[in-house]
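Weekly sync notes, structure subgroup
Attendees: PM, AL, DS (notes)

Item 1: joint prediction request from the bench team. They want all two components modeled as one assembly rather than separately. Inputs as received:
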Amino acid sequence: MTTRSLRSLSGALKPLFNGHLSRPPPARYGGRHTVTLIPGDGIGPELANHVRELFRFCCVPVDFEVVNVDSSMASEDDINNAIMAIRRNGVALKGNIETNHNLPPSYKSRNNLLRTTLDLYANVMHCQSLPGVRTRHRNIDIMIIRENTEGEYSSLEHENVPGVVECLKIITKTKSLRIADYAFRTARAKGRRRVTAVHKANIMKLGDGLFLECCKEVACGYPEISFDSMIVDNTSMQLVSRPQQFDVMVMPNLYGNIVSNVCAGLVGGPGLVPGANYGEDYAVFETGTRNTGKSIANRNSANPTAMLLASCLLLDHLRLHAYASMIRRAILSTVTETRLHTADLGGQGSTSDVVQSIMNAIQSTGPQTLSI
Amino acid sequence: MWSCQTDSCPSAFCAAHPQRQGENIPPPAKYGGRHTVTLIPGDGIGPELLNHVREVFRFSCVPVDFEVVHVNSALETEVDINNAITAIRRNGVALKGNIETKHTMAPSVKSRNNLLRTSLDLFANVMHCQSLPGVQTRHKNIDIMIIRENTEGEYSSLEHESVSGVVESLKIITRNNSLRIAEYAFRLAREKGRRKVTAVHKANIMKLGDGLFLECCREVASGYPDITFESMIVDNTTMQLVSKPQQFDVMVMPNLYGNIVSNVCAGLVGGPGLVPGANYGRDYAVFETATRNTGKSIANRNIANPTAMLLASCMMLDHLELYDHASSIRNAVLTTMNETRLHTADIGGQGTTLEVVQSIMRFIQSKGQLTSDL
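Output from the run, pasted for the record:
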């Protein structure tokens, strides 16, 4: 890890603010925000509970409106309720909702429905090597910006001839320009030097070719940021040998999914990285790699770091920066304690131990808290 | 030291093509006791590496003659690649370098490599990634065999722009091709004594497409009760690969995931210069480096790693049933790999291509077989 202090590390984890787009400040009623909470399946509910526990402990002025989505029901009522709640509140924190393979193909992925209906077009994941976590690679600092609504995830498939399935991957100029613009704006706001577009335009010439062209177009408007492109297979190979060469990466949906999982694996696993989905009007926060974690559910062994860091991103989005930094500092200092590492990091700590330690760290720094 | 008897060959690089044994495919044709193999130099580092292959073959007195067919990637017409395809149909076997696909040309100019694979119906791309003893990597004891569907999927090159600014790319998955590749994977696994086959997919999102692929794999798996079958979503797979790659044995997947996963695995075992790849069809076989890099930036500088191409030529010799020559060259290549001072730039050394090839030839000569002069 470089000579960065924990404070600058936590500062670097703050998300972008579209300050220049005159978005009104988040609404508060009686000085408190309301945030939609979707527990999801697997480890989602327990981690969401820990988040609530921590927020109550720190006296964070956020109230959660819990909306349960039952993944085994075929009707879309549940997810539509959730979407309406998010439209109402503007912000949400969610766990992953399981997509059961055994249900018929007409049953669409609930997570995907949520993202496309709310037009959360940018998925931002910041992968950074954490000081307390031992990994094979060091000094990784990659920001991955992934198009979140189109591409291979359009859920448009058909079987005209029996035994022959066509899946449509949709790339549009508007959305490609939009995500490229978002990427460059974010890079500029964070003082990043380089943006890499990941594509497979040698094979999908029209589709990824269009994406690449849009990125090049947008790059012209940001002369201080260098832009290059890389084919996705070469990118994945470079990521496992020399990930330090990457700075900001922008890409369509499927490559984003794969590349973000590779990067999450490089910095220590799915339990550490938070993710954020931003749209024009809404923002939804979740773990970076969207795992349901069914096999470790309710065993007190899940790593709460990713979900808690996602809740800090949420607090930053609501402009409660002081609370966000305080919780983030506590989380990062806890992660350096090897004896508290959970199973996914190679330790034997339990989720509740980690959360307790975070609460202790917060209490010791002095601000107003409830009693433990 | 790698010893290689034909029956107990380190399955690493031997390409015992499973179809040979079952069906009535005649042995490869020899005229005057010599085979003719199509050689496509390609672009970038292809020509120089293939020259080294020819050099090593001539030195070891391998009974193979190369019919060289050039494919000019700058031309828009398909005459060149069609000539190459005809030559491969004629000879049955080919060794190729990667042909560059220029992004600046019109979208109607299809990737030449892709055209070759689909016209010859080379449906299975097989890549065996193994940790080599002489190469230092972050992960050890990797032994993964990747079988990738090579002709359909995202590489169907079918795209259209019905509405301006909206492009639809079609990813085609068919039952026949999926059954075929799954069958190939399980047969190969059984033959090499592998215990587990993992299907990689994204069926939670592409329910019909990857769902069909997964179903076909399951169907075929039921006919092979001695082999465990499991499936994994591609994003989880890539994450597992970078943390615990030792859990994987044989992996089968559609085209695009195969591309990405094979590149990740190549990166894990030491890079693109080390792993050979083979493309098998029912009637033809084409051998090349596994990650299909053109290597334009290192072309003609005597720094490319010849290992991948030489191991690919050994796989070709196995395919032609010239097992002795294959083993001797393979042993020489793997022994040279142990010498750190001969490592090329891509694995962190400063050796040149020529030094590596010379060392390989010296080793072959030291084993006492018939060779020409050094």
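Discussion: The mean pLDDT of chain B is 89.
Action: AL to compare against the crosslinking data before next sync.
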